[in-house]
Design brief:
Blueprint: E1 6-13, E2 16-25, E3 37-42, H1 50-60, H2 82-92, H3 108-119, H4 124-131, H5 146-166
Length: about 170
């Protein structure tokens, strides 16, 4: 992602002007042949606010931005890659995540948001909008709690057993 692809902008929401972090994805995964897509990440006013995080990062960064260079670079100017992000996540979350049981990568956030929204009762259409899905493919990302999977497995086994007895 180039430095020119991200900027703080504004949007009207319910008659109020709110800050957004506008991100341009030139080649989004879900629309590879498109002319790109602009995303608005809305200010939340809490510790996870994308607008505040971006502004703070802009103030603290060591590398000068250039519209001709990637946005995220290391202090020495080299690119900050997905591999480096996953390495940093592993380091930062080492006391919280048991990586021997379940790795956590940047892609985990896509699955996590879909799961959180589903468990919170959001409609499928809303989950699809937030994740920019155009089909029911998002359902593959939703993690079903162990208790529900166990109940479904027991029900399925009972139905299979009863159907075999009838045959």
């Amino acid at each position: 992602m180039m430095a020119s692809a991200v900027k703080v902008s504004h949007a009207m929401v319910e008659g109020r002007k709110v800050d957004t972090l506008q991100v341009y994805l030139a080649h989004p995964k879900e629309e590879r042949l498109s002319a790109g897509v602009k995303l608005d990440l809305f200010a939340s006013g809490d510790f996870m606010c994308p607008v505040k995080a971006f502004r703070d990062w802009m103030q603290d960064k060591e590398v000068k931005l250039s519209s001709q260079r990637p946005l995220f670079r290391m202090a020495d100017g080299s690119n900050y890659t997905g591999v480096l992000l996953n390495k940093d996540l592993k380091f930062l979350l080492k006391d919280v995540v048991d990586y021997s049981k379940s790795p956590l990568t940047s892609h985990s956030f896509r699955r996590g948001l879909a799961t959180f929204m589903a468990k919170s009762g959001y409609a499928d259409e809303d989950i699809m909008k937030v994740g920019r899905w155009h089909s029911g493919a998002f359902k593959a990302y939703i993690t079903t709690p162990r208790e529900i999977r166990g109940k479904l497995a027991a029900e399925l086994a009972a139905k299979v057993s009863s159907s075999l007895l009838l045959a």
